[in-house]
Amino acid sequence: MKNDIHDLGLVLDSRVRLVVIQSWEELRVLEAIGTLAVKRGLTWYTWNQVEGLRRLGFGSALEEADDLTDPEVALEHIRQQREPALYVFCDLHPFLQSSRLIRLLKMIAMDPADAAPTLLLVSHELTLAPELRRLAAHISLSMPSDEQLASIIRDEAARWTERNQGRRVRTDNRTLQQVVRNLRGVTLGEARLLARKLIVDDGAITQEDLPVLNRAKFSLLDMQGVLSFEQDAARFADVGGLAQFKRWLGDRQAAFQQPQANGDSPKGVLLAGVQGSGKSLAARAVAGLWGLPLLRLDFGALYNKYIGETEKNLRDALAMADAMEPCVLWIDEIEKGLGEDSADQGVSRRILGTLLTWMAERRSRVFLVATANNVMQLPPELIRKGRLDELFFVDLPDARVREDIFRIHLGSRELVVERFDLPLLAEASAGFAGAEIEQAVVSAVYCAAARQEEVENAHLLDALNETSPLSVVMAERIQALRDWARDRAVMAD
Ligand SMILES: Nc1ncnc2c1ncn2[C@@H]1O[C@H](COP(=O)(O)OP(=O)(O)OP(=O)(O)O)[C@@H](O)[C@H]1O
Q: What are the AAA+ ATPase domain coordinates in residue numbering (predicted)?
């Protein structure tokens, strides 16, 4: 499956407390889980029968009176915890015959509290007792292999050589192996950008680069980072609907790639609309379609009091984006930083000023994609004609698009799409956003796996029935958004 790390994220969101990951590659699975935990700000622990329970993967063993190398004692300890942490059990499989242990797992899996621990069982092979099967999600994590990481470094070295009159990148095997090891746990896209960063300054990858790499990897994962490289851009084939938007971009691709003599090139768009309808996915897909790196600017982090002066942070981030041209700069939830009810009016006015000045004066080929849920909060200056090329409204998907979204998400989980009754599913998901449809597919997949059944229409219908879509809960807000958009925006679909 290609979406598996993403799926693990969704499974965690759906509050499944017991996740089974079958893999021979424990180290790489741990690194991927660690990466996800850091991104989500979750504490995580590992357990194995030799070292017992350890905090943060490689930290020291917990100081407990009891012997936490005993899996039952460790599980009993976890059962008492009231924080949403991840507990990764490596090789619990030899113990899965014990009825007490099974009971403990079941109690943790059924814990209804919001702030409760999640168990991830990692083994090369693991069969759950029947009473646990329905409670568990099964995920297979495939991450970039060492060979893939090494080949990315070779690629980037070749690119550099091409740009530097055939000069070769200086390095040695030992350092390369260390770099590959340090890159484990990041996605392919992130690995590419990190490799590029190492080479670009001096045309060499040396021991001195290792701390640089670690710092860069850390800042990539660092939640406070204002600007981050986004993982692999999406493909437009992964986005259901949004036909108008896709056409619009297609028409401008050439102009962006070969700027006109007068310096005019497409500047950017605002995607506004209903939550979970694929705005972020579409932003990623712009980078995919145009084959450009994607940078994400986090307005929330700009205001973080720990990282200093807000406007300077924004100026630095914009300068960095300029230096990375050509690229796509994605500002997610732009209303959070510029909205009329944002925390500090003075700062948000100055931030708006800085952004508008950059938009008006820049000559770099940075295509801005701003996404917003609550567009009504946005300052009128930003959306005034001419600032951005276009304002698109992304509505809930209609039946035809919902079929497409099912097709995309069933297909990406290697299910045979023809076996499903798409019109029936589209009808049953009226009012669902794309994200909710995807969530239903994921929960159907793991429900079926737990029952050792093939995924059928019925599993999907059950999952849909169990969800009450946001469009019902927020019907009035969505209508207000539509009314707002009617005279101001172009429909994205
Ligand atoms: N039109 C769509 N086609 C395919 N998948 C979709 C679509 N809309 C949503 N999804 C799925 O739902 C996930 C979440 O959607 P996404 O984050 O892009 O929505 P959003 O509009 O940006 O929502 P939010 O405003 O909550 O951030 C996507 O990663 C994708 O997997």
A: 265-398
Cβ count within 10 A of residue 182: 19
- Tell whether omega for the bond before 259 is within 30 degrees of 0, i.e. cis: no
Mutation to probe ligand 1, out of 230, 245, 269, 280 (largest number of atoms < 8 A from CB)? 280
Answer yes or no: is the C-beta of 402 below 6 A from any ligand 1 atom.
no
Q: For residue 480, is it within any domain? A: no
Q: Kindly provide the b/e burial profile for residues 365-385, where b requires at least 16 CB atoms within 10 angstroms of the residue's own CB.
A: bbbbbbbbbbbbebeeebbee
The angle that helices 434-450 and 399-411 make with each other, rounded to 10 degrees, is 40
The residue from 394, 424, 442 where one domain ends is: 394
Specify whether 100 is located in the same domain as 50.
Answer: yes
Q: What is the whole-number distance in angstroms between the Cα of residue 493 and the centre of ligand 1? A: 14
- Say if residue 95 is in the same domain as residue 164: no
Question: Taking the CB of residue 264, how many other CB atoms lie within 10 A of it?
Answer: 9
- pLDDT tens digits for 252-271? 988 887 766 666 789 999 99
Specify the pLDDT at position 24. Answer: 76
* SS3 state at 469: coil
Which residue's CA lies nearest to atom 29 of ligand 1?
281
Please say which residue of 194, 223, 252 terminates a domain: 223
Are 210 and 318 within one domain? Answer: no
pLDDT of 430: 94
Q: What is the pLDDT of residues 32-52, one digit of tens each?
A: 888 788 778 788 999 999 989
Instruction: Assess whether 361 and 427 both reside in one domain.
Output: no
- Asked if the structure places residue 490 within a domain, the reply is no
Q: Domain of 443? A: 399-473
Rounded percentage of the chain residues whose pLDDT exceeds 90: 38
pLDDT band at 224 (very low <50, low <70, confident <90, very high): very low
Question: What pLDDT score was predicted for residue 2?
Answer: 41
**In a domain? residue 37:** yes
pLDDT tens digits, one per residue of 132-162: 988 888 887 766 788 889 999 999 999 999 9
If one residue of 3, 246, 277 were mutated to test the ligand 1 pocket, choosing by the most ligand atoms within 8 A of its CB, it would be 277
